[in-house]
Automatic annotation (TrEMBL), chain B:
Spans traversing the lipid bilayer: 79-103, 110-135, 236-255
UniProt-recorded name of the protein: Lipid kinase
One cellular-component annotation, GO: plasma membrane
Keyword rRNA-binding: no
InterPro entries in the record: MetI-like, MetI-like_sf
Membrane-topology annotation of the record: Multi-pass membrane protein
The keyword Cell cycle is annotated on this UniProt entry: no
UniProt family annotation: Belongs to the binding-protein-dependent transport system permease family.
Annotated source species: Niveispirillum cyanobacteriorum
GO biological process: cellular response to sulfur starvation; transmembrane transport
Keywords, in A-Z order: Cell membrane, Kinase, Membrane, Transferase, Transmembrane, Transmembrane helix, Transport
Chief place where the protein resides: membrane
Signal peptide: none
Record's subcellular location: Cell membrane
Amino acid sequence: MMKTRRFLGKLTAGLVAASLLSLPAYAAPKKDFKLAWSIYVGWMPWQYAAEQGIVKKWADKYGIKIEVVQFNDYVESINQYTAGAFDAVTVTNMDALSIPAAGGVDTTAVIVGDFSNGNDAVILKGKDKLSDIKGQKVNLVEYSVSHYLLTRALESVKLTEKKDVSVVSTSDADMVAAWSTADVTAVVTWNPLVAEILATPGAKKVFDSSQIPGEIIDLTVANTDVLKDNPAFGKALAGIWYETMALMSADTPAGVAARTAMGKASGTDLAGYEAQLKATRMFYKPADALAFVRGAEPKVTMQKVAGFLFDHGLLGNGAPSAEAVGIEFPGGVTYGNAKFVKLRFTDTYMAAVADGKL
Amino acid sequence: MRLINRRPDRTSWLLLAALPFVAVLVAYAMGSAVRLAENPADKLLPGLTAFADAIDRMAFTADKRTGDVLLWLDTGASLARLAVGIAIAAAGGLLVGLSAGLLPYVRATLAPFVTVVSMVPPLAVLPILFIMVGLGEASKITLIVVGVLPCLIRDLMLKIDDLPRQQLIKAQTLGANSWTIAIRVVLPQILPRLIDSIRLNLGPAWLFLISAEAIASESGLGYRIFLVRRYLAMDVILPYVAWITLLCFLMDLGLRVLQRRAFPWFEDARAGA
């Protein structure tokens, strides 16, 4: 009996130890950093920078290592970041607020890369007015920026999601196949899927993100505590990014080569990628991003986004209001709960690039 | 005394049985406490109160947007799909399994085909299924049927092979024709074995259901899990997983009770008596 008890004790201890060891380590000064990214027109530069040695060049300059990891599943990349397995991730402003920030992971937008200016769209089959969407089933990735775009589109024609349409959650991987079936008549999705769907007969774009410019923002964010302990990481990210931006926006053979490579990596070609870039307001120069992030627009947008997330119950357990999660803007202005600021828009790193202080 | 002959008494049996459950709970509570101390809003391993809140929100409070109580809505939708899918698979399995098991001509026609089809991973052909039957309820039910039916057919054919040959010979000497043998001799013996086969296929059936719901849906237990995964709501996911496990257990129990009530002789037959 004694023996059994001792054995059971050891077994319990082992199980507990195993479960504790599997917890991720927390922020402290460190040398190795990991960035997760997924395929999207505005995030392709990360892969190109890694392939061209730009990542290594800047990491070496600050004496650190940065590993750039591609995810096929966008949401999984954010979840991994939120769980602590990655230090930085590419994400939209809305998902940054609803996933890591609402989950208490203090997150800073190191780089404001672009905003969607037509890349996200509402598409109807055989109908050409947005108001025709009334009464239809709408296939989209529920709770994504597509869902946000739909509510903004419906607002513009005085319809509501609750009364006038019903939403069918559809995986982005199956969106094009779904569109080709008879019972799917309305979708909201993003590029390159938009381009592919619009190429089929009968597909009509009735609303897109260029009608709500600046509201769907693509960011590269990092864990605030990691940045605080390792400012070199933020500086290296900004250095890598704007060197790559200068390269890809140039009207030179090197620029064309960069855009061709990024197009290929995202499953299209130079022409397809340039068409997507046209629907994206890229901030190629840090000054452009600074002007945008320091302006009044992001504050207004983030209030709308927080309102949308709260209406759909996405701001965390029993969030009492849309202001449950605090958001900080450059200059120390905050929106929402000042005691729970978890998403920060900063101009620090981009300004360092603009001022030549890297 | 040899180890293989030492048996736990009733109390230690209960303690030992409870041990792994307790160990998992303790490990979870400790891991959760560590993460919550670091970050009180942690979503990965939420505390027990977060579960209570989430269960209350999902199972007992009407949704703000739609006015439905989500857990029951999801449960109803999923169980309906599962019931129809399994019913079709069971009926089809019985019909094809019985005829192919008894009639050599049918077996020659169908057995190789069914064997090959049962090797096709149903999830791999999901996109084709969607194009063929659309994204609605039909495709979800079809996926369950496609996933479960070939296994049921193959299993029943094997079970029929296991029946003692003499039975069929005796029945023939007594003047029974093929139809009578199928209905009076083989069918009653195959039905309880069909129940066994369905019990083993409940797990795969749930797997196919949840995979189908993840792709396009408006409600369902799998749909909800994949939806809230978007914002890492483990406080909803884990209770849903526990609920699915309980439902699965209850379905298994129900089938076992049905088997015992409807075929009381089967327990002896299984024991080889």
